[in-house]
Design brief:
- 29% of the residues lie in helices and 20% in strands.
- The protein has 12 helices and 14 strands.
- A 6-stranded parallel β-sheet has the order 3-2-1-4-5-6, with helices on both faces. It has a 6-stranded mixed β-sheet with strand order 10-7-11-14-13-12. Strands 8-9 form a two-stranded antiparallel ribbon.
- The radius of gyration is 19 Å and the shape is globular.
- Belongs to the aspartate-semialdehyde dehydrogenase family.
- This is aspartate-semialdehyde dehydrogenase.
- It is an enzyme of class 1 (oxidoreductase).
Length: 338
């Protein structure tokens, strides 16, 4: 078994990590970290568990450690659910101490030597791990994109060989993306908030890196242009987005691309049977009905129309956060980077 830990295990994404890793067939979850206030308590005492699944019983007995390099230096992989303002320096120090860091934080996503990976889209970018090691680092950092970027990039992946140079996207993002304390009920109930701090920039820049080309030493960003408008809506889980792409290829061919798409790898434990699911019902996908497809790891697409216009939905805290990091770690282990 590969020994792993979770940084920031008591928050919204941290709890998702614990849920996904508790019975993982490859990973032995042995360390959970949180703030000094929680350190020394059992996880059961420290966490305010808010997922709609029961807390894995054996995880409740783990004694929470202070979030520090010393707490995780004996592990093979740490999953980071830290806020960006805490993650930057600490993730670097942990990687320098010889540990692999799979991060959901934004701190290092755009660093030149850090891969920003969606396994189905750009697994070759893991070659940047060798670039980090060539510079003298014993461990490494691999990041996953922002939650809405993941849903959009996965939805575009089956048609990325079409001549597309311009993408417009309008998102309808769930409140769980803001964290447990992120947005007050009085601000979102019966309302739509047409602003999510830095979200539009993340979708526009991260996508160019993800769809870029790894030339053996760095990523050459894709020239594709993305214009995003992001909105918070009163949905608990599941980001939905309307996407416009400037291809004039026949809609029937685009639908066949979605229907026939298969992931370029297989047999990873968290991998869904279908990474992208095409729905032909006129009113799908919808977050409440489709966010848990593939155990929350699939992205659903539908309403494909001339334009080219279509709708995509994905689970933001599973496929868009903790599940994305776990799948990255499985790919890293499968490629023998540990």
């Amino acid at each position: 078994m590969i020994n792993v830990g979770v940084l920031g295990a008591t928050g919204a994404v941290g709890q998702r990590f614990v849920q996904l890793l508790a019975a993982h067939p490859w990973f032995n979850l042995k360390t959970l970290t949180a703030s000094e206030r929680s350190a020394g308590k059992s996880y059961r005492e420290a966490v305010n568990w808010r997922l709609d699944l029961a807390m894995p019983e054996k995880m409740g007995d783990i004694v929470v450690s202070k979030t520090s390099v010393d707490s995780v230096k004996d592990l093979d992989i740490v999953f980071s659910a830290l806020p960006a303002e805490l993650a930057g320096r600490l993730e670097t120090d942990i990687a320098d101490a010889g540990v692999a860091v799979c991060s959901n934080a934004a701190s290092h996503r755009m660093d030149a030597d850090i891969p920003l990976v969606i396994p189905e889209v750009n697994s070759d970018h893991l070659g940047l791990i060798d670039v980090q090691r060539d510079r003298g680092r014993d461990g490494f950092i691999v990041t996953n994109p922002n939650c809405s970027t993941i849903v959009m990039a996965m939805a575009l992946n089956p048609i990325r060989n079409r001549s597309i140079s311009d993408i417009r996207v309008a998102t309808m993002q769930a409140v769980s993306g803001a964290g447990f304390e992120g947005i007050a009920a009085m601000a979102i109930y019966d309302n739509v908030v047409p602003y999510i701090g830095s979200e539009e920039t993340k979708m526009e820049t991260e996508t160019q890196k993800i769809m870029g080309r790894f030339n053996g030493s760095e990523i050459e960003n894709s020239p594709i242009q993305i214009s995003a408008s992001c909105h918070r809506v009163p949905v608990i889980d599941g980001h939905t987005m309307a996407i416009w792409a400037d291809t004039h290829d026949p809609v029937e061919e685009i639908i066949n691309d979605f229907k026939n798409y298969r992931a370029p790898f297989s047999n990873l434990p968290t991998q869904p049977e279908k990474s992208v699911i095409y729905l032909d019902a006129i009113d799908r996908p919808q977050p409440r009905l489709d966010r848990n497809s593939g155990n929350g790891m699939s992205v659903s697409v539908g309403r494909v129309r001339e334009g080219l216009r279509f709708i995509a939905t994905g689970h933001n805290t599973i496929r868009g956060a903790a599940g994305a990091s776990v799948l990255n770690a499985e790919l890293i282990a499968g490629k023998k980077y540990l």
